[in-house]
Specification:
With about 375 residues, this protein is α/β, with parallel strands linked by helices. The chain has 14 helices and 15 strands. α2 runs parallel beside α13 and α8 runs parallel beside α9. The protein is globular, with a radius of gyration of 21 Å. The N terminus is likely disordered.
């Protein structure tokens, strides 16, 4: 298939019907409408698009916030802390609009506007960001805030925190900031729990917290290992893994086990934990799966794609036009089918700090 790349690149990062997962499908349909099939694409039997896929409510809120900052404050230094999402494609779009991204808030110029990422930020970093006349807008996802609140409550109860997540991930670092260092243990495997049990008394009060973007097959065995050593461990009544992560993983599972996908492509980035979890889920469901960043990546897996029914999904930080650009590299003999699934209607309000800044500017 050949799409008009100029048209795709000019599209807004956000779906037209902001706040609904169905909007991602609709945007993708519109982008692909009228796209002509060409022999230049890799021949596949059919393309299946699951529901939901792509942007979640937290990412939409963060990107919409940064869009508004760019629109409302064209003359200010605009800084994104840790990238607004884990997707170089999205970051590149904002860099073209004059936004700079830093990994240390001290690198943000004085009097700049600093937009914190939805993955959550340690309170010490937030306070540092507010120094030197900087304005701070926190786009932390409410589901991550829930984990922060759990961490604070568990600390107050004197519990040791065993955090199931990825070392160095922005979300993990944000949670770590709410817990005394001596009470925080980040683990990524059952073996690490076995080692931890050699040094921590089984009588200690323990709590499990989980990174919101993990695959169920990743965190659940580790949580069970914790319970083996600390049977009275506290864990959230509603699991920390967010509904959007779970919905996208279950959609991939249906894609393979019920809807006939013979291979699954996940359009995402190497930095995306939830995107990698979708690859893991597809493989767990029984098919080959590949992480795809751009249409150029397809040439490396051409033999695996030939004449297959190809499922294409996307991580929660992947915009529809990035998916469309990948689809443009394929030639499906029997077209594209949009599968029906869970429709997410969740919408998160824009941060109050954004409106406060706008009001100050009007005065």
């Amino acid at each position: 298939m050949i799409a008009e790349r100029e048209t795709l690149e000019q599209r807004s990062l956000l779906p037209t019907n902001f706040g609904s997962s169905r909007a991602v499908h609709n945007d993708l349909r519109e982008m692909l409408d009228g796209v002509k099939i060409s022999k230049s694409g890799i021949p596949v039997q059919k393309i299946l698009i699951p529901e939901p896929m792509g942007f979640c409510a937290g990412v939409e809120m963060a990107i919409n916030t940064l869009n508004e900052v760019v629109k409302q404050f064209p003359d200010r230094n605009l800084i994104g802390y840790h990238g607004i999402v884990h997707n170089p494609y999205v970051i590149g779009k904002f860099e073209e609009q004059g936004v700079n991204f830093v990994d240390e808030v001290s690198d943000a110029p004085a009097d700049s506007i600093v937009v914190l990422s939805p993955h959550g930020t340690a309170p010490q970093v937030i306070e540092k960001a507010k120094q030197d006349g900087r304005s701070v807008i926190d786009t932390v996802c409410p589901l991550v805030t829930k984990v922060h609140n759990e961490a604070k409550r568990m600390v107050e109860e004197g519990r040791i925190i065993i955090y199931i997540g990825h070392e160095g991930h922005d979300e993990a670092e944000g949670v770590r900031g709410y817990v005394p260092p001596e009470n925080f243990y980040l683990v990524e495997s059952e073996e690490e729990i076995d080692e931890l049990a050699k040094n921590l008394s089984p009588e200690l009060p323990v709590a499990i917290l989980t990174q919101t973007t993990l695959a169920q097959g990743t965190w659940q065995p580790i949580a069970e290992a914790v319970k083996k050593y600390w049977p009275d461990v506290w864990s959230a009544p509603k699991k920390d893994v967010c509904y959007a992560t779970t919905n996208r993983q279950e959609a991939v599972e249906r894609l393979v086990q019920e809807q006939g996908a013979e291979i699954v492509l996940v359009v995402t980035s190497e930095q995306s934990s939830n995107g990698k979890a979708l690859v893991y889920k597809a493989v767990e469901a029984g098919v080959e799966s590949f992480l795809i960043k751009t249409v150029e990546d397809l040439s490396e897996i051409k033999d695996s794609l030939l004449n297959k029914v190809v499922g294409i999904t996307a991580g929660a930080s992947t915009p529809a036009q990035q998916v469309a650009e990948v689809i443009a590299g394929l030639s499906p003999e029997n077209g594209i089918e949009f599968m029906e699934g869970v429709v997410e209607e969740q919408k998160f309000h824009l941060p109050k700090e954004l409106q406060q800044l706008i009001n100050e500017q009007i005065k």
